[in-house]
Amino acid sequence: MIEIKKNFLSSKEYKDLFKIISSNYFQYYVKPYQTKHTKTKNKQEHLLQHILMSGESINSDWFRKIVIPFALKLSIEKMIYARLNLTINQNKPHACAWHTDFKMTDEEKSRAVTAVYYFNTCNGATEIKGHKKIKSVKNQMIMFPSKLPHRAIQQTDTTFRWVLNFGFISR
User: Fold this and answer.
1) With pLDDT > 70 as the criterion, what percentage of the chain qualifies?
2) Mean pLDDT of the chain
3) pLDDT higher for 65 or 47?
4) Cβ-Cβ contacts under 8 Å for 87 (sequence gap 6 or more)
5) pLDDT per position as a tens digit, 97-149
6) CA–CA distance from 93 to each of 21, 61, 124 (Å)?
7) Which residues make Cβ contacts (< 8 Å) with residue 140, sequence separation at least 6?
């Protein structure tokens, strides 16, 4: 089941976090492709990313400040990963490869959830295989079973698209 939660954070929480992640001082790192396990020959499929957590290990001093406001609103047993994705307008709505965000055990497949939070409104989208595209809407969270393949569609109407993407095992 796909859940869409509008106005996920309070206005103050949203403004405080957006100020951090969109500042000139917040570091993003270059990835030459958008998906970890599926690389394409599309030269426009690059990404700027800040990995907050990977493989259940915290990788960033920003983890608590950025992820905890979300975690407190969700029923999380175990956090798997968390990362901020920043895409830059390429003047075409390039779609990355279909993928799932992490490898799961058979037990995890029934309870693993992928969450995508949009920091800004733009015509970029998340497409979940077999479902319609979900547009990026400011302060909106989508959640779906992690076993569902999905992909990002790049925006063409704004310079940047900021997304927080994380996976967890639900209670």
Assistant:
1) 87
2) 88
3) 65
4) 47, 48, 124, 152, 154, 155, 160, 161, 163
5) 767 766 767 777 778 899 999 999 999 999 999 898 999 999 999 999 988 88
6) 23, 33, 7
7) 4, 5, 6, 7, 8, 117, 118
Cβ neighbours of residue 34 under 8 Å, at least 6 residues apart? 45, 46, 47, 85, 96, 97, 152
pLDDT confidence bin for 164, thresholds 50/70/90 = very high
In the beta sheet, which residues pair with residue 76? 170
Residue type, 26: F
**Maximum CA pair distance of the chain?**
42
**pLDDT at position 154 over 80:** yes
Q: How many Cβ atoms sit within 10 Å of the Cβ of residue 78?
A: 13
What 3-state class would DSSP assign to 33? coil
Q: Nearest to residue 159, comparing CAs of 29, 54, 48? A: 48
Distance CA 139, CA 163 (A): 10
Contact 105, 56 (CB under 8 A): no
Are 53 and 63 a contacting pair, CB within 8 Å?
yes
| Cα 16 from Cα 66, distance rounded (Å) | 10
Q: Are 114 and 170 in contact (CB under 8 A)?
A: no
